UniProtKB/TrEMBL annotation:
It is an enzyme of class 2 (transferase). InterPro entries: DPG_synthase, Glyco_trans_2-like, Nucleotide-diphossugar_trans. It catalyses: a di-trans,poly-cis-dolichyl phosphate + UDP-alpha-D-glucose = a di-trans,poly-cis-dolichyl beta-D-glucosyl phosphate + UDP. It is a single-pass membrane protein. GO terms for molecular function: dolichyl-phosphate beta-glucosyltransferase activity. This is dolichyl-phosphate beta-glucosyltransferase. The lineage of its organism: Eukaryota, Metazoa, Chordata, Craniata, Vertebrata.
Amino acid sequence: ICAIAHVTAKTMPHEDAECKRGSAPNIHDPATKELSVVVPSYNEENRLPLMMDEALDYLEKRQKQDLSFTYEVIVVNDGSKDQTAKVAEEYCKKYGSDKVRVISLEKNRGKGGAVRTGVFSSRGKKILMADADGATKFADIEKVEEGLKNLQPWPKGMAISCGSRAHLEKDSIAKRSYFRTLLMYGFHFLVWFLCVKEIRDTQCGFKLLTREAALQTFSNLHIERW
């Protein structure tokens, strides 16, 4: 596995995406927002509205309660073949380009490449990865924020808080076939054996990073896809 990863790894350019509304900010610049939400999207015209409505409703209410709270949502259209970009642009028009931005990649690069593009164009002190399918309730960001806070003091300002749906595993198993359940346990074992043992749900697409941690993490990313 390590040999294949080494052979297939390639240098990934930082500036290969353009935002329709002009050149995007850079993660190397000082933060100007409290929170950036990066939403990688590939053929998500049907599911994206549900996620965006929930996220923006929460963020707008939070901003009204705390005027110092600022945010942006970055939808990275990963070379979609449907109307994902058009759907995202409607939110850009509704909430303004300062709160919702759309970055469109000409070719599909995979989730890793899409998230990385969004992260490198973010302006937030904290950066949240959130899947377009809305599998995680957006208000649960408060839980990962609490997790991030509990990690303090952060070494060199770096910390990552990972969402988890491991506690829902029994419910999900009841809806899966035996074959898919077997594959799931097999995958979990490989991740535990080869990679990390402390994180129970590595596949949850809900992760909160400090700006410093995001810069270091995604600068060292070699594989764009799965």
